[in-house]
Amino acid sequence: MKKLLSVSLIGLAVAAASSAQARDYDHVRIGVDVPYVPMEYRTPEGELTGFDIELGNALCDEIGVTCEWIEQEWDGIIPGLLARNYDAVMSSMTINDERRQQVLFSEPYITMPSAWFAPASLGIDEANEETLDGLTIGVQRGTLQDNYVTDNFGSVADISRYSTADDMVLDLDAERLDIVFLDYPIGQATLIESEDGDYTQIGEQITEPKEYFGDGFGIAFRQRDEALAERFNEALATLKENGTFEEIHSRYFGE
Amino acid sequence: MVDVNAWLNDLLAGNKIFTPATMAHYWEGLVTTTQLVFVSLIIGLVLAVPLAIMRSSKRKWISLPVYAYTYVFRGTPLLIQLYIIYYGVVFFDGIQESFLWPIFREAFYPALIAFTLNTAAYTTEIFRGAIKATSKGEIEAARAYGMSESLLMRRIVIPSAFRRALPAYGNEVIFMLHASAIASVVTLMDLTGAARYVYSRFYTPFEPFLFVALIYLCLTFAILFFFRFLEKRLLAHLPSQSA
Question: Signal peptide location in the record (chain A) (predicted)?
């Protein structure tokens, strides 16, 4: 009897979950991993800003929904989306096949290469198996940079994985890390343009192979929220046409 | 060896999460966790014995510094202690050039230091409680035999205090194993670190965390049985509590 009851309860829960599928949003909660300068960070006054934040807010205005930003550390950002802690993720997330199996992506809104950064004193001008041999590489846990470095250099170098890019930069400053592998604009902003520390980019910007580096940054939704993703796609197209996208882009990346 | 590999590959084929690669991560994590907990417990135990004797001293200038130490390390979260020792030390000027840097450069040793100091503080208090609980009659009898203070300590107080402390110390060992799960915040690939890595790579919280939870359970049971065995042997002279 008890068993029957629990089975029918589960059935009820499944029915309730599927009826909640087609949901119209007027309030969208967006998950974001802060700080990741210049994509998402807090000003000294504590205000959340950055390219993702400004573009996200403009998209929400265009769609006519209110947006709420919810901070979440990177390594739990997709599970958090699937657990309905928020409805979308806009946090410099690269679109790739592995992630497509879990979430639904919008059209890419920007393409970002990755790059190696190290103290100038390291004295190598290209990152490959020979030059990285025996070095300690810093990456953010669960990023595509992590996967790329783990699969390609995991056998020759030590890999240290961090929850936040900030902790990683701290350990690079502390000389615990020899070299880090980051999204290019983040490395530019936090390492090259910051006054303290003498850092340099090693080698070219990296966008290949696509298996790791994907197709640019996209907004992630739950698989069933196709309507919501479609609304964001339309809004993105509108903002690109009317110049708003260009205006925000130039404020963060020049030209 | 080849057979084992083939067998393992067969066993793990058809799923993405329990692959030979992730198994290697878990194995590395198990080794790191065991090393970290075992070594810090051993050093902590060695430190705790003299500290507990000092802590039980009647002379304030001996007991007070030890009390301050145990108070600070028992009164603050281990996570904070780990953060201070790992991220804090790099703000001392010139640490990178000093002879200490090879120790602090690795994540392992700062974690080991934090864990050791923490467990030593708790163990000191456990032993001190046991020393204090020594029955007056035993001490008076020993004095009547003309034992000096140090002989009294060595032959009467310490052996019986150790036995009395055993159940509480067994708990401390298990707590330490569980507390070691925070080591992954300073990039150490311990069991929890391995689980976090697999979790963030495959976006599946259940499999990796359940899997390492099972490993922690096995370790806990091993510790439990070891201490039960010790208690049976060493506390056999005491009347059974449950009978």
Answer: 1-22
Chain A residues near any Cβ of chain B (below 8 Å): 74-76, 78-79, 82, 99, 102, 141-142, 146-147, 160-163, 167, 170-171, 173-176
Residue B15 domain-assigned?
Answer: no
Of B87, B90, B201, nearest to A142 by CB-CB distance is B201
pLDDT more than 90, % of chain A: 51
Query: According to the model, what pLDDT value does residue A153 have?
Result: 92
Number of domains in chain B: 1
- In this structure, is residue B239 part of a structural domain? no
pLDDT surpasses 50 at B243 = no
Q: Report pTM.
A: 0.80
Q: In the CATH scheme, what is the homologous superfamily, with its name and number, of domain A24-111+215-253?
A: Periplasmic binding protein-like II (3.40.190.10)
Q: How many CA atoms lie within 13 A of B83 on its CB side?
A: 6
Average pLDDT of chain B?
Answer: 89
Residues in chain B closer than 8 A to A121 (CB atoms):
none
Closest alpha carbon to A113 in A207, A180, A202, A40: A207
Q: What CATH number corresponds to the domain at position B165?
A: 1.10.3720.10
CB contact under 8 A, A162 and B187: yes
pLDDT, one tens digit per residue, over B93-144 is 888 888 888 888 889 999 999 999 999 999 999 999 999 999 999 999 999 9
User: Mean pLDDT over residues B193-204, rounded?
Assistant: 86
A161 vs A143: CA distance, rounded Å: 10
